Model the fold of this input.
Amino acid sequence: MYYIFYGFTWLITWLPLPVLYILSDIIFPVVYYIAGYRKNVVRLNLSNSFPDKSPKELKSIEFKFYRFFCDLFVESLYEMHISKREMLKRMSFSNPEVVLAEYEKGKSCMLMTSHYGNWEWASAFSLLLPADKPMYSVYKKLKNSRFDALMYELREKNKSKNIEKNDLVKTLFRLKKDGKLAMFGMISDQSPARNAIDYWTTFLNQDTAVITGTEVLARKFDYPVFFGKITRLKRGYYNCEFVPVSLEPSKTEQNEITERYARLLEKTIEENPSYWLWTHRRWKYKR
Done:
């Protein structure tokens, strides 16, 4: 089944993206109306996150999210054959200089991202980096080895280096020892494992356990931290703005960086909630 899926994907992704959006339009009613993919999870997340919104408003966000979710699926597969020129046209970066300036100071950087907009395309920032100062996209290995290999392949299309989260610390120490600089892209909005919860905050009107790993490493190595704020401009086009979270992490208080990130992400979601991944079981645990 995997090889059939891979072959079909390899073939159809030679088509222009506007044509692939027709496929998105076809699968939308299947995903939303027939399969109802994780619809109960989405509805619970939305109602708890926006208690002041009316049922009509919540329904509108839900509908727009599933339309976007189907677009995101075909956009991610489109990476298989997308050119560097088209990628940078579709995923623009408004202020890369603020991050690159840290290289001039001899510092590596932590880039905190989230499951908002097309986070897979955000790795295109690596195309703007010097070859000797690459981006490492930190990821969690998928249980299905074949699909993990597919996602690994797609993520390396933008010249970023994939690094499994369990290998991150030793990579940081190795690069620092060798005097090499790099960017580290961290998706930081997942729910931590139950035995790894060490900080709670209020996020989208709910008690929320948050991952603190990025902050711990940033403070230890004193690597500046930026939030990658992704905006969907229109269908198939995004922009990423780098917002400083902390330029001197070693001088921050414990959990300060994590809290700043939470507030920045929360504001981004509230501005346009349809583009966050509401199918995640983000609030699995209670305080």
Q: What stands out?
A: The chain has a mean pLDDT of 93. Residues 2-275 form one domain.
